[in-house]
């Protein structure tokens, strides 16, 4: 029953979504009341979908692993959300946002999907304002904008450095209204452990109640996965500690194709790593690059002195500083896209110009802006970020430049979906960061929030009707059937076996080792030899995990180590697929940088003739090599060029 | 400040198997902790040791580890979120502690936040309060174009200040009455300062306050302890706004 067809509607790009909406089926209000939908995830994607579907009249069951939907990882997004409103009169438009996103994604995304996202972007802002999201305002009371990396217009809407939080509180509030209405049933502190497929269609999930340990069955007419991204496969990332690939991995193993797993984004402005015990990395919003200048010393002697704390950054005179982004990319300067900025930082540090004791940091300096426009303005714009920096590092960034270094931040890859956001399993949808759809090989800043909310508020609520219209005869899903029982038994089996091992190493030990392999060999810069080694090393590590892991506690109680073990076990499988995907892609594009495929100046070099496709992997069983399917990308409206930000 | 190593610290931690069982304090020692480590990283290290010694690790809530999700919340040495101002537990660093220190770590203590294991509590009461009215009644798709309604930046800023609440519960833990007044006031103030939230402002104040009482949170006696421990600097002036909405609503009735 699997379908691997993008289902992109015919016609001119500006008409596609409109025509599609007109042609897809609609479910009557009466019938909606009889249909159940499971939404896994309460982030911007899942939260907005759950609320909108409930408003339409469907019965929604909403799941998250945190104690409240409001804590989903979207809450941590700082910088802002894009929309083609053209409020700055700087010649922005739906087409320009579309164009920037395709180009920023290094021509590895679908034109039709991206155009649709750009088209609904304005509605998102309207919706969020109506919910009470306190976006920043101009003196006259209109909405304010800022600019973000990789674009030449100012189209990013923001609420201080807490945009994700405010947008999420908006969708959380919309959910709360529907919970009060009885249209959303909330299941917090639940972890999805498997998908249940009956007669080829998604019909439910199995979860673990994280307080009682109870294994539960939940049936529905459709299942939506909105579980976020998988950056934590690298152990250290900017994602929340609990962010994971598990729901995406479970559905992959049940037949949903996994697209472009190797496309991971490195964020250039994170607080550098400082110790062995470190548990996560903290992002300093990219918006800081609007007002901060990035530099390292021109001369290596100065860098070495900084590394040994013999001098302070402010001891280095202006003429001895190398503002390397401004030097290399005069037209975009400090605002080049993330992948370009990250690699440039790595290049300087690898060449010995790093500025902290590990040599893995560059400066982000606000002195010029503070001098020009005053401390107050900076404080107003970035106060909470500066405070956060100082609390972590004990350095006052108003007086000394910040130190930053790239870190893993976002995964463009994810579950493959068609134009309707349906996976290769009928009745199963994937939205938000969990799917692969709109960002190609690199995501532009402030576009993830836009995509999550586009999917959840304005796309899925329409497209899901097209499938459900044919399910109105299907009664409530009975969970006392073999398929649910089998899934539940398999889970119990796995949980018990992981508890039985009682080996000599903790989960974190394995997760850290996996992270190191991923960062060294499947990270910012990759090559054939390293990728092949990574595949072998991950396999060996996986075997070791299943022999030597120690999970304390019991199955019938709160057990964070057990949760971590399950997530890490999945990461240990995902890591191999990422390496495999990176290995098959003999080109460099966006966040995927293969050392063998570069221009003479060391910039990424695409191979459009052979690699202009989405690589979608099909699971073939535990000991088999997965199969690669190719969805060829056609570009009718954007001319493919080598990205240049010079 | 340069990194230092704390050679030895003592941890006195609340242990409790589950909601039904009785809790007790247990004491652990930990060696060689970097002052650059975060408090929760120190807890991770402790747990790594406990697991290896065959002792059940200490359960605590956490997720973002950057002060925004509101998951974490420990009562450290008698203070909600520990001995530093304007931060959450996950933002606390070991440089705030001295060599040889004894650190007492407890869960939030409040009737409406029952302990479910060790340092984890059930804060679902906060969600229930929000469901009682912490929203604007608007369906997806029915919004007007954003710039049709102008909002003066000052109101937007006041709304934003209040909207920064992360729902951590420190205000309740810090209050001798276990009142959730600051939390409720933050939401009421956020929405009452925006034109979109005005029509329902009074109803919202009444319903949320009523739900708060029903759920067993105590009354407010204006001690201001909540404001001191709030990691997001929510001001007790929001409580005045709540009272204003509440009283004017009662007058209307
Ligand atoms: C620090 C940081 C800053 C960022 N800043 C920006 C920005 O300024 N602009 C921008 O556009 N993007 C930004 N991003 C990216 C953006 O925040 C995310 O891509 C986006 O929020 C993802 O939303 P989501 O709804 O897909 O998933 P999430 O918000 O990650 O939500 C995932 C949900 O799934 C649930 N879940 C996960 N696994 C399970 C399971 N096994 N069982 C049950 N439930 C589960 C979780 O409980 C949660 O509710 C930032 C990201 C980070 C890390
Ligand atoms: S008001 Fe402050 S202390 Fe209370 S929940 Fe909100 S952020 Fe936490
Ligand atoms: S873990 Fe998110 S606020 Fe502390």
Query: Main beta sheet of chain B: strand number and arrangement?
Result: 5 strands, mixed
Classified by CATH, the class of the largest domain in chain A is Alpha Beta
Give the biggest beta sheet of chain A: 5 strands, parallel
Bound molecules: flavin-adenine dinucleotide, iron/sulfur cluster, FE2/S2 (inorganic) cluster
Shape of chain A: globular
Number of beta-strand segments of chain B: 7
How many domains make up the coordinates of chain A? 3
Helix percent of chain B reads 25-40%
Which residues of chain B sit in consecutive blocks of at least 5 with pLDDT less than 50?
Answer: none
What is the count of helical runs of chain B? 8
**Largest beta sheet: strand ordering of chain A:** 5-2-1-9-17
Any key phrases for this structure?
heterodimer; A: 646 residues; alpha+beta; FAD/NAD(P)-binding domain; Flavocytochrome C3, Chain A, domain 1; Methane Monooxygenase Hydroxylase, Chain G, domain 1; 3 domains; five-stranded parallel beta sheet; five-stranded antiparallel beta sheet; 14% strand; globular; B: 253 residues; Ubiquitin-like (UB roll); five-stranded mixed beta sheet; two-stranded antiparallel ribbon; binds iron/sulfur cluster; binds FE2/S2 (inorganic) cluster
In short, what is this structure?
By secondary structure, chain A is of the alpha+beta class. Chain A has 18 helices and 19 strands.
